[in-house]
Amino acid sequence: MKTEIVNLTKKLIEVESVKSKPEKLQEVVDLAANYFKDTQLIVKKYKSQDKPSFMVLSKNTKHPKFIMNGHLDVVEADKDQFHPIIKGDKIVARGAGDMKGSCAVMMIVAKKIFLQNPKLSFGLMLTTDEEIGGNNGVEYLLKKEKYKSDIAFIPDGGHDFEIITEEKGILHFQLETKGISCHASRPWLGKSAIDELITACSKLRKTFVNPKSPAEWKISFNVGKISGGEAANKVASTARAECDIRFPSKYSQKELNCVTDKEQ
Description:
30% of the residues lie in helices and 24% in strands. The chain is of the alpha+beta class. The protein folds into two domains: 2-153, Zn peptidases (Aminopeptidase); 169-263, Alpha-Beta Plaits, CATH 3.30.70.360.
């Protein structure tokens, strides 16, 4: 089985399935779906906003007992990173760990499970937009196509092989501040939007103190990108920060919106 996993993983990796190349997203889906053409498993393909996905089902149902889930899209990379290299007992390439290796394993397992127990109710869900949010992949299949299961198995991105039973929610937002532009030699004539932005971000940092380890299961806050201003000798009239908050299930996005609005 090891050889089969390695060979299938390499084939998946060699397809440059990034968001900027929709034809490659379709290619990797077709490649994966064709893996099941010689079986009695049911394959159903879908597409939402040019993002293809597919389901492999042991029974013609939208509610199998359990679903294995994975994504075949990867983050943009140089061309040579899509040529897998074997180093010791590892495959080194874009998407090997996140998560074409796991997808290859689940594809092989789906075949073997069906051969051993064709009466078992299960599904395999593979999508191509996880790296950009999953709205046209998993969200589409669950909300629009109405797929669901009693158990979901998602071996995505981990390296310690611990079983994770809870994920944090995500809130992405942009802070924008406005000031009054003037020459840097006369700052008293203006108001720096960048200074205002730093103050706003500092307030949020004091409100959301980041955890120091996985044991602290609480809200985290990150400023991922800052932009603003035109030149070093000019007081900035606008500034923006793109922010990320991760929150446990006991909080709601509405609550966090209220907090961030208050701090601003």
